[in-house]
Amino acid sequence: MNPLSLEELFPMFPPACVLTDRVLLVPSSEFGRLKEHYIERTRAFILVCKGCLVLQLNGRRYEMREHTLLDMLDGITIQILNTSTDIRAYCLFINYKFASESLKNLKPGPLTYMLDIMDAPILSFSPEENHILENQMLLLQNCLRNTDNYYRTELARTYFKSLMLELGNLLFKHRAPADETPSTIEKKELVMLDFMKLVWQHFKTEHNVDFYADKLCISTKHLSRIIKDQMGKTPHAVISEEIFHMAMTLLEDDRIPVRQIAEILHFSDQAAFCKFFKKYKDISPMAYRKKIATE
Q1: What are the sequence ranges of the domains in the chain?
Q2: How many other CB atoms are there within 10 angstroms of residue 51's CB atom?
Q3: What share of the chain is helix, strand, coil (3-state, %, to 5)?
Q4: CA 253 to CA 87: how far, in whole Å?
Q5: Sign of the C-alpha dihedral, residues 276, 279, 280, 281?
Q6: Is 254 helix (H, G, I), strand (E, B) or coil?
Q7: Alpha-helix residue ranges (DSSP H) falling in 232-269
Q8: What strand order describes the sheet that includes 68-72?
Q9: CATH fold for domain 6-179
Q10: In the β-sheet with 78-83, what is the strand arrangement from edge to edge?
Q11: Residue 178 contacts by C-beta under 8 Å, 6 or more apart in sequence?
């Protein structure tokens, strides 16, 4: 199953959910259209107000319960697996153009926020804080539903900016005391963030560390030193972990032949993929598939 981009998602939903080429806001009543699809190359916010939602991010499984928010950067692949029958939630997809048009140079929230969500993309809020965020989602939702409004695009930008400002305000309230919070982001942290964004975008096709170093305009040695210092592992290990988690996710779908998974993840052949997978799991991809089928 090939991942879908935001542009490919638009035709799957009614016009009242879509601002063409910019925004898709999916209420929980429409979540069935998202299930089982892999979605990539879009920034996504999922707010769960009631019930439970199970999803995968780059092959890693997460469970969201009430009063939680997922903020997913645009290099990550997302798949919604299941929702409870009492789910009340909102899934907002936006592209970079819309975000930049809405926020201009404004970056709501603490300076370290983008670094924080790399490790913990799901945020927890109080019922009162969740109510604030849900109200903002509803404003945007009602705006999109009014397809005849001459200023629909402008209002959508305003309500998205309002959502981000309210979120930013809550993040400041949740941050560590002033003496524990850095006032600036060090250059090596920005390199790490840019490296991870590139990995999420390219890990399926680019397995070589040199590619990422070239994109960041630094030497492979310097990149390796920064990532080892910041993350405690090598860039190669980071890339391999993303490949491995995606491989496990694809193997769970027995409709996809192992040979095709090797092609999706850009291994030279099936044997090379099997050797890579066995290194991490101690069993072959075929054995792993049989194992999960019997569990």
Answers
A1: 6-179, 187-294
A2: 16
A3: 55, 15, 30
A4: 25
A5: positive
A6: coil
A7: 235-251, 258-264
A8: 18-19, 23-27, 88-94, 43-50, 68-72, 122-124
A9: Jelly Rolls (2.60.120)
A10: 60-65, 52-57, 78-83
A11: none
Q: Is 21 left (phi over 0), alpha (psi -120 to 50) or beta?
A: left
Q: Which tens digit of pLDDT belongs to each residue from 157-203? A: 999 999 999 999 999 888 755 544 444 557 887 888 889 888 988 99
Predicted model pTM = 0.73
**Cβ(124)–Cβ(67) below 8 Å:** yes
Q: How far is CA 264 from CA 243, 247, 251, 271, in A?
A: 10, 9, 12, 14
Q: Which residue has the tokens 């402008």?
A: 154
Q: Say yes or no to pLDDT of 84 above 50.
A: yes
Cα 108 to chain center, whole Å?
Answer: 18
What type of residue is 167? L
| Overall CATH class of domain 187-294 | mainly alpha
User: Could you tell me where the DSSP H helices lie in 175-208?
Assistant: 187-202
Q: Rounded to the nearest 10 degrees, what angle do helices 270-281 and 285-294 cross at?
A: 60
Q: Residue 245: what pLDDT?
A: 84
Chain Cα centroid distance, residue 146 = 28
> What is the per-residue pLDDT across 49-83, written as a single tens digit (0 to 9) for each?
999 999 998 888 899 999 999 998 777 889 999 99
Nearest to 73 by CA among 50, 93, 97: 93
User: For 220-265, what is each residue's pLDDT tens digit?
Assistant: 999 999 998 877 889 999 999 889 988 988 898 889 999 999 999 9
**pLDDT score for 99:** 87
* Cβ-Cβ contacts under 8 Å for 290 (sequence gap 6 or more): none
Report how far residue 202's alpha carbon sits from residue 272's, in angstroms, rounded to the nearest whole number: 19
